[in-house]
Design goal:
The protein is built from three helices and two strands. The model has no long low-confidence stretch (mean pLDDT 91). Strands 1-2 form a two-stranded parallel ribbon. By secondary structure, the chain is α+β, with helices and mostly antiparallel strands. Strand 1, helix 3 and strand 2 (55-58) form a beta-alpha-beta unit. 50% of the residues lie in helices and 12% in strands. Helix 1 (2-14) packs across helix 2. It has one domain: 5'-nuclease (Rossmann fold), CATH 3.40.50. It has helices at 2-14, 22-33, 46-52, and strands at residues 37-40, 55-58.
Length: 64
């Protein structure tokens, strides 16, 4: 999980996106790898939805 999380972080960095919290990268990667949806209100997860297709159950409609 750590290696895949680091890969995802690097992919986003190449797009000019920095995720502020390492834990967010790990959580998003876990959800992606295990085909889980993620309920969130933290904007750090939006790039995972946009670039990796993270399934979401979003609490705030206006953050996209």
């Amino acid at each position: 999980m750590a290696i895949k999380s680091a890969e995802n972080f690097r992919i986003l960095r190449k797009q000019g996106i920095t995720i502020r919290k390492t834990n967010d990268v790990i959580i998003a990667t876990f959800c992606l790898e295990n085909d889980h949806s993620l309920l969130f209100s933290d904007k750090d997860f939006i790039p995972f939805v946009k670039y990796f297709g993270l399934k979401t159950e979003n609490l705030q409609d206006d953050i996209f």
